[in-house]
Amino acid sequence: MQESKSNTPFKPLGSHLRYLREQTQESVAEVSGAVEIDMDKLERFEQGLERPSEDILMLLINHFDIQDNEAVQLWEMAGYEDAKSERFGLNADVLGGKPMMILMAMDMRTMYSDGIQVNASKNGVTMNFTHGKQPVSRVGMSREQAEVVLHALQSALLKSQYLGGPRLLPPSFEADTSK
């Protein structure tokens, strides 16, 4: 019995992650695609064989839309306790018990791509842009935001195709009275 516990040190965490996935009626492939990890890795998390990194656990918490106490419980099951709060210099009172993610754009140069991979689930869309075989950018968004982006792209392409040149006034058709 002792040996089995040592082989699956994160069994409670894994069981809870599996429960969350089953409650959302998602497959391992759907969840692993949404948080961009290997299916084998997610299965090892669910079996309690491995602990997800802090970043992956945060992505799973956000993916399953886990709030307050349940998020804290998952965090503690993973053995992270208050490490994240201390790392960011925040305490639970400031965060209100909710997970927080901050992204800052460090480089505003335009990166051109010639390839794209799109993964979609009922929870959102992830787009991976590449140039050759090199990753250029990864963007994730809700389904609603993806529809807004799709409409904006279609509109921009139509405008560039049909309104690409300078807009000219129509020629004047005044009667020539000098004759």
Task: Tell me the layout of helices and strands.
Elements: H1 2-7, H2 11-23, H3 28-35, H4 39-46, H5 54-63, H6 68-77, H7 83-87, H8 92-95, E1 115-121, E2 124-131, E3 134-141, H9 143-162
Antiparallel strand pairs: 1-2, 2-3
Helix pairs in contact: 3-4
Q: How far is the N terminus from the C terminus?
A: 111 Å
Could you say which overall geometry the principal axes of the C-alpha atoms support?
Answer: elongated
Strand content: 5-15%
Question: pLDDT below 50 for ≥5 consecutive residues: which ranges?
Answer: 83-95
Specify the structural class. alpha+beta
How large is the count of helical segments?
A: 9
Helix content: 40-55%
Strand order, largest beta sheet: 1-2-3
What does this structure look like?
The chain is α+β, with helices and mostly antiparallel strands. It is about 45% helix and about 15% strand. It has helices at about 1-5, 10-25, 30-35, 40-45, 55-65, 70-75, 85, 90-95, 145-160, and strands at about 115-120, 125-130, 135-140. The chain has a three-stranded antiparallel β-sheet with strand order 1-2-3. A hairpin with a 2-residue loop joins strand 1 and strand 2. The chain is elongated. Mean pLDDT is about 80; it is low at about 85-95.
